[in-house]
Write a structure and sequence with these properties.
- The structure is a single chain.
- This protein has about 90 residues and is mainly alpha-helical.
- It has a domain of about 35 residues.
- The chain has two helices and no strands.
- Helix 1 packs antiparallel against helix 2.
- The longest helix is centred in the middle third of the chain and has 14 residues.
Length: about 90
Amino acid sequence: MCSKLTVTQIVKSLKLYTPVDVFEEPVPISYIRKIEQKLKERESTDNSLLMDLKYSYSVTFPFNASSIALETIKVPQQLNIAKLVVRC
């Protein structure tokens, strides 16, 4: 489903796959080798990754000021944070 992955990336993903279920087996090495051979037969010269690394993606995190003053917050004793100091 992802045509831009290289043979190395696919093989590494198969080797690193960890089964979640006890009844599921890891990917056999023989299967990985067969996949590797098939992929090398169809490998194109385009070795680009999925994302353009030269482009900078800007991220903006909104700031929502709280109406609660830090001095008014009471820390419960159950948290065992006796060393907590509020500095203003």
